[in-house]
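Batch queue: ligand-bound targets. Current item pairs a single chain with PBG. No template structures supplied; prediction is de novo from sequence plus SMILES. Inputs echoed for audit trail.
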Amino acid sequence: MWQAEYVASRLASFGFESVLVPLVSGGDTDMRPIDGTRQVGVFTKRIQQALVDDEADVAVHSLKDLPTAHDPRFHLAAVPERETVLDTLVTLDGRTLSELPAGAKVGTGSTRRMAQLKALRGDLDIQPIRGNVQTRLSKLRSGEFDAIVLAEAGVVRLEMHDLPRSSLSLVDMLPAPGQGALGIEVRSEDHAAVSAVGRLNDRSASFCVTVERTVLAELHGGCLAPIAAHAITEPTNEGAMRLSITARVMSADGQTCLHETANCKITPSDSLDRAKDLGRQIAEKLKTAGAEALIQASRPA
Ligand SMILES: NCc1[nH]cc(CCC(=O)O)c1CC(=O)O
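Prediction returned. Tokens below.
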């Protein structure tokens, strides 16, 4: 709801009126452990269906939740300026990861977070947790978990400034492709919506998430594989920018971690194809280092 309200207010600033269509996704309600037998897109399918059914004209997603497979019915019309990409450790008293006692029960359903946590603190008891941010927090408050890992973006957006937490660094916890970014889809043939929503696009954010998502797509990682990717842009001369990406593929137990970096120059006339090329390039490096075997081994039986 925060995300949809944000998009509505940005659209309003460009003179476009909108009406919110609240929806509940499977990702909000399905509390069964993630086991790979269900379809991808649990948070996004319901919202895309609203586009198909003409229930809504604009679909607002957390980009991290949006599957990378291309669907010709939809067009990703904008990736607005990104919120923080970091993950954060939420506890009842704000202690850091290194301050957690041995055997502390930490909740995360993400194999990416699990692998990196295990690499840092092999003594923790890491257990699956599901649901939206509020559901996960209620499981921390009830004592079911000693700590949970959340994307800091969600915490910041919901203005939970008093939530005891400690940010995990990019070195300790490389984020998921697209983390902290919104992805706004419209129906491909809805040219009015493409152009209106396109006003919300941030060029830097769209290049960063495109290279990150290309890594995921090239490795056929889906949302369950222990794959992390984070890209940044830095301005260079003559309006150009340098696009740099760091990516990791890990074993589920965190014992093996492949880590690669790559970068390229983006000129004002370059299209997102440049970012896709860079994504394919770093994916190749990871494959050469043995990424496919690690991803295969992490698949649920
Ligand atoms: N998988 C659920 C989900 N999708 C996006 C976010 C956070 C917001 C974001 O990354 O933009 C979250 C919750 C979390 O990972 O803590």
